[in-house]
C-alpha cells in the first residue's frame, strides 16, 4: 500500500515526538510541517525533531500554503488544549481537504465545552468529506476509551472508578512544572484556581465514558488539590522539600440525579511509589483491569496520535470520537 | 432513537444467554428466534430463555421465513464454530438484508481457514449492503482485540505474550466436559487429537493480533495438553481425582522466519487458583495489562455479541473484523 501523506501541525513537546515517530513508520510519509513559532520557520524538521526520516521537510508557519502544496491525507495536530484556540487551524485544514487527528484535549468529547463550534466543524468536515478526531493517552485512552471498550463484555455496569497514579520523578521538566512540583501550597492553590495548573481533559474523559456506559450524566465536576511531599524528593531537574508540593491530585465525577456514576482519581506527583492505571466496574459480571506501572504519558500520547491516523482516515466524514472510529493499533 | 430489530439465530448455551440479554435492552427489540432443533420449534422464546422480555416471540426452524417476516436490522448468530457449517445460514441472512454478529470462532479472522468462502461472503454482503462480524470474549476480546487496541499507545511492539487462566470449578457442566475435566489422560489425548476437545479460536486470535501488530506472520501453530489434578478437586457437577484430567492447556504461537512474535498461554481447569487474563508486550515503552479474576467466559461472550450489535450495524458493508468496526461498549 502507498504510504499515507502526513503533515505535522504544532511542534511542542508532543508534536515533536509525534513527528519523529511518523518519520519511522513505513506506512506514513511526512510531507510537511507547520508551526507558528517564527524561530522554527524555515528550519529543517529532521534537525528540530532529531530524526533522520524527517530530514528534507522545511518547517513553515503558513498552514494553508503547506497544506495546498503537500495535499496530505491527514494532519497530526498538536497546538492547544482548547477548541476556541484551535478552531481556525482546524477550519483551514478541513478546507484543504485533509483528515485531522488532534491532541486538543477538549476535542475528545467536543460537545461538552463547545457544542456550537463542534456542530459547525462537523458540518464543515462532512461537506469536505474529511474526519476530525481528538485523542491521546489521557484523555483518550486509559480513563475513557479503554474502560468504554471493556464494558462490552459486561451485561450491565452500575458504576465505574478509574485511577491513574503517575510518578513524575522521571518525567520532563515542563511536566513537573505543570503539576506544581516544588511550589508552596499557596502558590499551587492560586495557580490552580486560575486554571494555570494541572491536567486538562478529565471532564472530557468523564463525558465520553458516561456516554459509552449510557449513564446520561447531568453533572460533571472536578477538583484539583496539591499532594504535599512527606519527605524530600529529588528529580533530575528539581528538589521538593518535605511540606512543599510534590504534585497534583485531580478528582472528578459524573452524576445523574445526584448519584455519582463515574469517578476519577488522577494523581501525578514526584515520588509516587505505585504508579499504575486501573479501573473497577460495579458490574455484572464483576470486572476490573490494571496496567502495572501505568501507561507512559509522553510516549503514549504521541503513539496513539500516530497509530490512530489509519482510524481517522478510514472513518466516516465529520467530527468523530474514539467511540465511533475503528480502534487504533500499532502502525508499522 | 427507535430500537434496533434483532433476531436470535441459534439457541444453544450462548444463544440463550444472548437472547435473554437482548430482551433486557431498551435500545434493542427481539423480533424473532431461529433454531434448527425441532424440539424448540413453535415454543415461546420467553419460556426457553427464561426472560419475560422475550415472551411472545415464537421459535421457528425456518430461517428465511422468520427473516422475511421480521426484517431485522441485525441477527445475533450462535450456531457453530466453523465457517463451512454456518456458510449457508449466513448467506440466507445476508440475502434477507440483515447485518450479522456471530459467535462462530473462525469468523473472528475468517481468511485464516476459509479465504475463498470469506471472499464470497464479503462480496455477497457488500452487494446487499450489510456487514458481518465475528466476535466473542475469546476469541474476540481478551487475547486479541484488547491487546491490539492497547498497542496503539506504543511506539513499537516486538513480541507479545497473552495469558488466560480460567478456573473451571464454577463453570457449567458442558464447559467442564469440553475441557476434559475428569477424564483419564489417554482419553483426553485421543479426543484432543481428533479435535473433539478444547478451545476453538486460538489460531484466529493469533492471526488477528499478528495482523494488528504488523507482524506478517508466516506460521501459526497450536498445541493442546491435559492439566492433571495434583489433588482431588470437586465441582458442583463432577469430581476429579488426583492424577486425572483437571482441564486443558492450550498454547500457540505466531512466527515469522522462525521467530516467535505472538505467544498464547490458555489454561482452563478445575482448581485454577489464580484465574486472570493478562498480556505483556516487549515494547517501547514497556506495557502490560492484567484483568484480575479474568473475564467471565459465558457471560462475556453473550455480552459482547449483544453490545457489539451497534458496531456491526454502523459498519461499512462486507465481512468485517474487530479491527475495523467501532469498539463495542455497553448498550442500554
Structural description of this entry:
Chain A is 30% helix and 28% strand. The first copy, chain A, has 332 residues and is an alpha/beta fold. Chain A has two domains: 4-136 and 300-320, NAD(P)-binding Rossmann-like Domain (Rossmann fold, 3-Layer(aba) Sandwich), CATH 3.40.50.720; 145-294, no CATH class. Chain A has a seven-stranded parallel β-sheet, sandwiched between helices. A six-stranded mixed β-sheet of chain A has the order 8-11-12-7-13-14. In chain A, helix 1 (13-24) packs across helix 10 (297-307) and helix 4 packs parallel to helix 5. The longest helix of chain A is centred in the middle third of the chain and has 14 residues, at 115-128. The first copy, chain A, is globular and about 55 Å long. The termini of chain A are close together. The mean pLDDT of chain A is 96. The interface between A and B is large, with 50 and 50 residues.
Strand content of chain A: 25-35%
Rg measurement of chain A, Å: 20 Å
Strands of the biggest beta sheet of chain A: in what spatial order? 3-2-1-4-5-6-15
Question: What is the CATH class designation of the largest domain in chain A?
Answer: Alpha Beta
Order of helices and strands of chain A: EHEHEHEHEHEHEHHHEEEEEEEHHE
Greatest interface (CB-CB under 8 A), with counts per chain: A-B, 50 and 50 residues
Q: What count of helical segments of chain A does DSSP give? A: 11
Segments of chain A where pLDDT lies below 50 for 5+ residues?
Answer: none
Mean pLDDT across all amino acids of chain A: 96
Main sheet properties of chain A: 7 strands, parallel
CATH topology of the largest domain in chain A: Rossmann fold
Task: Please name the fourth-level CATH homologous superfamily of the largest domain in chain A.
Answer: NAD(P)-binding Rossmann-like Domain
- The CATH architecture of the largest domain in chain A comes to 3-Layer(aba) Sandwich
Total count of domains of chain A: 2
Quaternary status? homodimer
End-to-end CA span of chain A = 12 Å
Amino acid at each position: 500500500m502507498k504510504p499515507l501523506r502526513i503533515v505535522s501541525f504544532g511542534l511542542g513537546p508532543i508534536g515533536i515526538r509525534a513527528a519523529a515517530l511518523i518519520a519511522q513508520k513505513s506506512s506514513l510519509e511526512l510531507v510537511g510541517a507547520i508551526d507558528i513559532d517564527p524561530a522554527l520557520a524555515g528550519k529543517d524538521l529532521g534537525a528540530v525533531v532529531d530524526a533522520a526520516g524527517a530530514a528534507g521537510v522545511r518547517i513553515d508557519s503558513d498552514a494553508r500554503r503547506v497544506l495546498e502544496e503537500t495535499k496530505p491525507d491527514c494532519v497530526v495536530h498538536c497546538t492547544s488544549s482548547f477548541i476556541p484556540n484551535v478552531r481556525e487551524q482546524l477550519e483551514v485544514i478541513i478546507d484543504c481537504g485533509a483528515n485531522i487527528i488532534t491532541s486538543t484535549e477538549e476535542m475528545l468529547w467536543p460537545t461538552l465545552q463547545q457544542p456550537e463550534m463542534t456542530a459547525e466543524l462537523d458540518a464543515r468536515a462532512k461537506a469536505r468529506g474529511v474526519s476530525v478526531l481528538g485523542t491521546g493517552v489521557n484523555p483518550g485512552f486509559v480513563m475513557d476509551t479503554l474502560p468504554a471498550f471493556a464494558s462490552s463484555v459486561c451485561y450491565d455496569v452500575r458504576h465505574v472508578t478509574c485511577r491513574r497514579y503517575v510518578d513524575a520523578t522521571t518525567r520532563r521538566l515542563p511536566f513537573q512544572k505543570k503539576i506544581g512540583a516544588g511550589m508552596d501550597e499557596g502558590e499551587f492553590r492560586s495557580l490552580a484556581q486560575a486554571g494555570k495548573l494541572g491536567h486538562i481533559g478529565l471532564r472530557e474523559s468523564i463525558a465520553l465514558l458516561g456516554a459509552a456506559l449510557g449513564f446520561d450524566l447531568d453533572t460533571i465536576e472536578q477538583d484539583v488539590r496539591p499532594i504535599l511531599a512527606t519527605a524530600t524528593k529529588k528529580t533530575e531537574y528539581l528538589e521538593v522539600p518535605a511540606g512543599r508540593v510534590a504534585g497534583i491530585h485531580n478528582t472528578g465525577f459524573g452524576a445523574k440525579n445526584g448519584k455519582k456514576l463515574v469517578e476519577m482519581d488522577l494523581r501525578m506527583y514526584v515520588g509516587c511509589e505505585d504508579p499504575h492505571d486501573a479501573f473497577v466496574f460495579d458490574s455484572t459480571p464483576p470486572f476490573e483491569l490494571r496496567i502495572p506501572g501505568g501507561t507512559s504519558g509522553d510516549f503514549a500520547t504521541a503513539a496513539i496520535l500516530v497509530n490512530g491516523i489509519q482510524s481517522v482516515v478510514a472513518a466516516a466524514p465529520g467530527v468523530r470520537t474514539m467511540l465511533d472510529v475503528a480502534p487504533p493499533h500499532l502502525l508499522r
